[in-house]
Amino acid sequence: MRERLYRVQAIILKRTDAGEADRLLTVLTPDLGKLRVNAKGARKPASRKSGYVELFSHVEFLLARGHQVDVVTQVDTRDAFSPLRENLERMGYAYYFAELMDRFAEEGTENHALFELLRTALGWLGETDAPILLARFFELRLLHHVGYRPQLFECVNCAKPVEPIENYFSVEAGGVLDPECTLNRREQIAGHARDAEPISLTALKILRYLQTREWETVRGLKLRANELAEVETILLRYITHHLERQLKSVEFLWELKSLRS
Ligand SMILES: [Zn+2]
């Protein structure tokens, strides 16, 4: 028999108002994947709960099983990630990380690695002066943990190790294609790699570095704006292809960038 009350660790991804005073929360948990819970009365001014269900905070919930969604009966905050709340750009990236998790994480599926990735990334986001680099690192780790790791070391068509020259990248084929396959063997490639576009050797090296190193190493990387832009474009194409739709928070981040330039 299932217990009526149970405890979960959770990070708040999204809040939606419901009814007179309730808030539906979409959260990420280590054991149950993505989960929707009801924070009853969270919007009442006097509610002691409201302050504790801040977006992106890491909490421990005591939940009661409900008919449709389970109900929050108690909240303890583990980490509010306060440093990232003082800065609009960092908050923008926190929204982006949460939106990616909301889209990629599955309901009811255990994924400890995904939870740990979000928890640690929100901590780093509060400290780093390179949130753009962190976002690219986060994207590659996320893709790995949800089974969409792009192939960057061998040609996705012929499996030969990729040479240090200008190659091609195909989101449809799932990674790097060498010039020989892209130009002469298109009929063998998934979707005939109609979307294949050249990838510079520098961008390929950066992607490999981000994919295989820890953040402690990656954080020291100094990249030019054009190098970051190429890597960002490739990853965003890859992610939106797999999600089959656009991400809302990306527009916000682009608006922030255009305000600064
Ligand atoms: Zn090939």
Describe the structure in your own words.
The protein has 261 residues and is an alpha+beta fold. Among the domains are: 5-81, Beta Barrel (OB fold (Dihydrolipoamide Acetyltransferase, E2P)); 130-149 and 198-260, no CATH class. The chain is 38% helix and 21% strand. It is built from eight helices and eight strands. The chain has a five-stranded mixed β-barrel with strand order 1-2-3-5-4. The protein has a three-stranded antiparallel beta sheet with strand order 7-6-8. A hairpin with a 3-residue loop joins strand 2 and strand 3 (33-39). Helix 1 (88-104) runs antiparallel to helix 2 (112-125) and helix 2 runs antiparallel to helix 3 (131-145). The longest helix is centred in the last third of the chain and has 19 residues, at 225-243. The protein is elongated, with a radius of gyration of 21 Å. The termini are far apart. The mean pLDDT is 91. Zinc ion is lined by residues 155, 157-158, 160, 177-178, 180-181.
